Amino acid sequence: MERVAIIGCSMTQFGQREGWIQDLLAEAGLECLEDAGVDADDVEHLYVSNMASGEFEGQTGVMNGLAHDIGAIPAYTQRIDQTSSSGGAGIYAAWQSVASGASEMTLLVGGEKMTHRTTGESTDVIASITHPAEYKTGVTLPSFAGMTARHYLERFDAPRESLAKVAVKNHRNGVDNPHAQFQKEVDLETVLESPIVADPLRLYDFCPITDGSAALMLCPESVAEEYADDYVVISGIDGATDTHVVHEREDPTVMGGVVESGKGAYEMSGRDPEDIDVAELHDMFTILEFLQMEGLGFAEQGEAWKLVEEGYTERDSGELPINTSGGLKSKGHPLGASGVAQGVEIYEQLVGEAGQRQVEADVGLCCNVGGFGNCVITTIMEAAQ
Amino acid sequence: MERVAIIGCSMTQFGQREGWIQDLLAEAGLECLEDAGVDADDVEHLYVSNMASGEFEGQTGVMNGLAHDIGAIPAYTQRIDQTSSSGGAGIYAAWQSVASGASEMTLLVGGEKMTHRTTGESTDVIASITHPAEYKTGVTLPSFAGMTARHYLERFDAPRESLAKVAVKNHRNGVDNPHAQFQKEVDLETVLESPIVADPLRLYDFCPITDGSAALMLCPESVAEEYADDYVVISGIDGATDTHVVHEREDPTVMGGVVESGKGAYEMSGRDPEDIDVAELHDMFTILEFLQMEGLGFAEQGEAWKLVEEGYTERDSGELPINTSGGLKSKGHPLGASGVAQGVEIYEQLVGEAGQRQVEADVGLCCNVGGFGNCVITTIMEAAQ
């Protein structure tokens, strides 16, 4: 079967944005068409990764609105929701559309508009991702993160500072990302002294609420060659669920969805963790970066914190730079956009368009986490010059 | 490429149901596993067609809830939304998952829980499918239907009764569908004297608001042979959009999405309209059955009403039985479930499991319409004994 390629990308400014979801989707969609050099008329499938435009803005049918706004009618449209991993699921859906022969040119646009709602209202929508047995008794995603972090630190004798160092690193990377919500460094002290949210986690252990959109253009490799000299292929992709009731998991430090989706993506690509040169992980909470590093085989269980302490994941000096984009932590986390934006960063790193953030990389990986690992999708991409 | 088969189906009782969306999805999901003889462990991809569980019930992540409820974890999950054609889009997504080689066993469950909300609240959610330039000034889907029906009747000199006969036929078919919301006949007079909703259309020209769920099991044909003697293959499938602003269309009686998706499905299957033995059309409003008959080539433009008058689409005596299930009109229209339920009816007709509704058929077609034809998906299925 022919490989599926990515030939262009775009990303809007992340942060607090004017307008509504359709503006953000159209902005990213039009820029991606331009970046890929593709006419809107040639888009056969148009996918929108978006979790909750209906809940956030009372507007549904946003994929058809996007087809209208960018002039892609009569392209086939679909909205993809896999909660906070909708973007990664969008990459998988777009991959399937091309790999199945259904489409020779698929535009994927992920986006979410959240900041016009209060943090409480947004949290209500986000909480409903998980099982009501938990969130209706107050165990929301930040609570899971706090309990898991406490357990991890105690069990593996990890210092609290190691978590804070994830935030410091990702903020430092975000300084060089002109689209990031926060383009500012934070020091260890600021993280450690920020207000408590879910003990031991504090404000700077959490990603913000964000508006934004990002896009990727996918097609068969034979078509990619007509459009670009440098492009990227998706060599491995898989998704998996873990228990929907989080407290039913045997080991709270193991995210089964990360392990299973990673296994599938490695197998499909014929790659090992050692082959990965750069990775975007879903650092919605700092503790999640540790859990994904371990679940994906970058570190042994309970040892990811040591690699972070040693600088193994630093952008400029580390062996495996993680979240060169700034991660969800500093770049922001517009739910449906985040997984697509991870793909944008890996694409730019692999084709050498990452500017100040550029690292040496031929093989990259993204891991996009829904809920508290309730559903996860892992994608491996490779440069194909 | 290997063909994609359907090896089992299920459908819950449609109507006003107790419980919530997760109950309906689980009921259909478990029944489909049993009908197909597939273990939950063997489901690789689990897709949920659902437009608005967040808006209707404040619950998101329902695909992960379903994986939990039927024991399908760690299957990959995704929610598919294409507004009122989410079910048809789910068939396309499930088809792509199998055709791309990503999954060897995909369970698709469509469902919606609507009746606990007032009709006004439901109408608000449904109105938001279309472009705000129209619905925010009061032009909702029923208004489009009324205006289009008036235009059609005047322009093609069709009698008002011809529309009412669609309702009478579909109600008559629904009597023999034990899962239909309304299992009762209505006579012409009842339809013609029912309260006006959007002149010239009256209450009985509209489908009801409904709770319900339906499911299909898809796999490669080589796998199907291990599970079933009689199964169905999807020989053609395609989707398309039309203008998102409805009044921008050149001819209000032509649904471009129907025409384009039909063309794609016919081309892929190598079939013509003449080859279709039975069809499920999206009769959300009676006028839509005419427009789809014409858009799909079953009748010339402006002539579908004549075929209905002649009895061409009757179940027991017609040349092309349409909506043998009772259609959305009498079966009900739980948004995300409807397109899947169309597939269930065609599957049952093709494998000879349609009971009292059985017609002679080797090739069947479903057309699922989102919005007012803003997005449409057409599927052609064939018996493969």
From TrEMBL, chains A, B:
Q: Name one GO biological process term.
A: isoprenoid biosynthetic process
- Residues covered by the Thiolase N-terminal domain: 4-222
Q: Which UniProt keywords apply?
A: Isoprene biosynthesis
The residue ranges of the Thiolase C-terminal domain are 240-382
Which molecular-function annotation in GO is an example for this chain? acyltransferase activity, transferring groups other than amino-acyl groups
State which residue ranges cross the membrane.
Answer: none
Domain of life where this protein originates: Archaea
> Methyltransferase: is it a keyword of this entry?
no
InterPro entries hit by this protein: Thiolase (IPR002155), Thiolase-like (IPR016039), Thiolase_C_2 (IPR055140), Thiolase_N (IPR020616)
> DNA-binding among the record's keywords?
no
Per the record, a Pfam family?
A: Thiolase_N
Name-wise, this protein is 3-ketoacyl-CoA thiolase
* Species in which this protein is naturally found: Natronococcus pandeyae
Top-down, what is the taxonomic lineage of the species of origin? Archaea, Methanobacteriati, Methanobacteriota, Stenosarchaea group, Halobacteria
